[in-house]
Design a protein that fits this description.
The protein is of the alpha+beta class. The chain contains five helices and eleven strands; from the N terminus they run αββββαβααβββββαβ. α2 crosses α5. This is DUF1436 domain-containing protein.
Length: 205
């Protein structure tokens, strides 16, 4: 049976990443720290914040997004044995517990009847920071899809949907970058030719 060659030290370093989401609806914004183990999940301990749209200045967005990204954690072990179910099951339970508590806090704060209705018109800017090799983060826009999910675009065809932002920028500049890419998000009712449709899924949870 074919076995791929072991990863080099540089390839292992490139696997490590941190991630955070910037979510916006017509009424509120939310900044959510993510943690990575197999996939991307709501962080059990990372920074999360929310505010009314009109109160979310570029400075507020940049400051809170930076906190969320820095507190994101990577739990996979590139080149080593994968996390077992005995670790994943309690991690997933704790992640879901915190996610639902945060969403319920927002539901009450903004007067929605259910969590599902709260997220019906949300747009998401996601991010990646390969923190062992890069001194910049990559922000990327998404498009709403059926069932409440979001999809992304291939960068080679849609470079305008992506933005590399140095970690050295000010909070104000980071917030402005987030808003710039948020303007590239699209609702689910935008019709495109098949060749231009988003290809990769980006779950919110």
């Amino acid at each position: 049976m074919f076995r791929p060659p072991p990863l080099t030290p540089e390839q292992i370093k490139a696997q490590y990443r941190k991630s955070a989401d910037f979510c916006r609806t017509p009424k509120f914004v939310a900044i959510i720290s993510k943690e990575i183990w197999r996939g991307s999940y709501f962080s059990r301990t990372g920074w999360c914040a929310h505010a009314l749209v009109e109160e979310a200045t570029p400075l507020w967005l940049g400051e809170n997004f930076r906190k969320a990204l820095l507190s994101s954690e990577y739990f996979n072990k590139p080149g080593a044995k994968e996390l077992g179910l005995e670790n994943i099951i309690p991690m997933e339970k704790a992640s879901n517990t915190r996610r639902l508590a945060f969403f319920e806090e927002m539901r009450q704060a903004y007067g929605f009847k259910t969590i599902d209705t709260m997220w019906r018109k949300d747009d998401i800017v996601a991010s990646d920071w390969h923190y062992r090799i890069d001194d910049f983060m990559t922000l990327y826009a998404s498009r709403r899809a059926g069932g409440g999910g979001h999809v992304g675009w291939p960068r080679v065809k849609f470079p305008q949907k992506f933005l590399d932002v140095p970690l050295s920028v000010s909070d104000e500049e980071l917030g402005q970058a987030l808003l710039k890419i948020m303007d590239q998000c699209e609702g689910y009712n935008v019709k495109r030719p098949v060749s231009e449709r988003p290809a990769s899924k980006k779950p919110k949870g």
